Amino acid sequence: MRLFTSILSTLLVLCGGIAIVVQGFQIPHNIATPKTTISTTALHSEASTNPQLSRRQIGELSIATLGLTTSYLGTRERTPQEYGLWGILPVGPYKRKKTIMETIVPDKVWTFDQKFGILNVQVPLRMTVIKLDGGGLFVYDPIAATPELLGYMKELEKVHGPVKHIVLGSVAIEHKTYAGVFAQKFKDAQVWVQPGQYSFPSNLPIPFLGFPAGRTNVIPSKQEDAPSDWKDFEYRTLGPLISKDGAFGETVFYHKSTKTLLVTDTVVEVTKEVPKIFEDDPKPLLYHARTTVTDVLEDTPEIREQGWRRVVLFGLFFTPGALNIKDADVALKERRPDINSDFAGIYPWDWVGDDIASFKALQGGLLVAPILQQLILNREPIEVLDFADEVAKWDIQRIIPAHLKNNLQYTGKDYRAAFSFLEAKGVPKGLPKPLDIDMQSLRDAEVGLLESGAVARVPPLPGGDVTREDILKQTVYGCRADLCAPQSSP
Fold first, then answer.
1. How does pLDDT run across 152-208, given as a tens digit for each residue?
2. Is the peptide bond before 282 cis (omega within 30 degrees of 0)?
3. Of the candidates 360, 378, 410, which is a domain's last residue?
4. How many whole angstroms from its chain centre is CA 22?
5. Of 75, 106, 135, the domain-final residue
6. With 0-12 CB in 10 A as exposed, 13-18 as middle and 19+ as buried, what is 155?
7. CA dihedral of 286, 290, 294, 295, whole degrees rounded to 10
8. Does 66 fall in a domain?
9. Which residue among 24, 105, 306, 323 has its CA within the 20 to 30 Å range from the CA of 298?
10. For the whole model, what pTM was predicted?
11. pLDDT tens, position by position, 333-374
12. Which of 238, 184, 239 is nearest to 209 (CA)?
């Protein structure tokens, strides 16, 4: 629990930083030679015409202006892999963000991977680009707009036409923070965002979330209202499922001609294969491959695989059951910067359990992340299953998620099976199912979240003795501002 609390606190600080430091305004198109400066006077002027802004929000936006002004000189991009605005979301690998480009379908589908994470728990963060039928490019879930990434995009534009649509299929911080900056680099592209965007601790309106004014739109709820050049796509939106201080939402896109499903966070596949993005810098893997602080490890394929296994367990559970967390004073006393200098040589745990068994339990198919299973999606099971049922109707042969393994060879039926944890009969044998020992930290966290009102109670799951209508009656739907979580029909 100590580690979980520490990670959760870090995430809350990061979320707060977004609202206070950046989401109040647009980023200049060219950070190296900014042409405009946002003044406090301008912010007050905007507030006078926008009744949605409170005095507190004006203060936060003023602080944001000061923060970017004082940090400007330290954000210059001196190499193609550097991201000058890394301080907006200060997570690993910080300023240097290597990009890996992969062709999925020649002349039609490409992916771009960077690393993303905290405490050396770094996993792939993926953007997908698809060529539109009539020419031009469709971008799903942008990543950090480094000179290297923008160079890749310019080469695609030369051959396949300009970026026409930039789509943010999530409300998650690691996606929306980069999407706004990326969108500023493509001045003629239309920007589309998942419904239910928010900021924390102050809920700012969409025009103040870093997206370009005048060309940012909410993804239409009806397919017939979509742009005409989306004719080769179908899409479905889940949520937003709104909690006290946050939300979860996702819009998935199905590209008909390549039978490819684009998802953000709803499913991943866990495999022992180490992602290509770690070939450039394996240090996070070597840090987590240690069983205890005194381990001295060689950089071998086997050690990298062990580090990847433990990174995945950390990323999915926060506190896997195989860990023994040390008290802070013990961890400080035992630190060994001479062995591994990351985090001042601190390695605050020992791996004492069977992490291999925990990892194997997650393999064998598509997986919905445990935190979504335990704390989010089970709050509105009917709506989630209705969404998955609709997605499953498409003739899917490939799934590209924003995290972990790329280019997954699964069908719509496989996608639907990943949500079987929401059914009273449970997960069928042979599909990924987290071990109870690994879910315990999330269950412990749920108790406190329920007591504080941060999350709603879990209604009965479908497929049991309770009718669909009664489950819907027992489901608690959150609201924020003028938006409430959508409800399924009885």
1. 999 999 999 999 999 999 999 899 999 999 999 999 999 999 999 887 666 777 767
2. no
3. 360
4. 18
5. 75
6. exposed
7. -80
8. yes
9. 323
10. 0.85
11. 999 999 999 999 999 999 999 999 999 999 999 999 999 999
12. 184
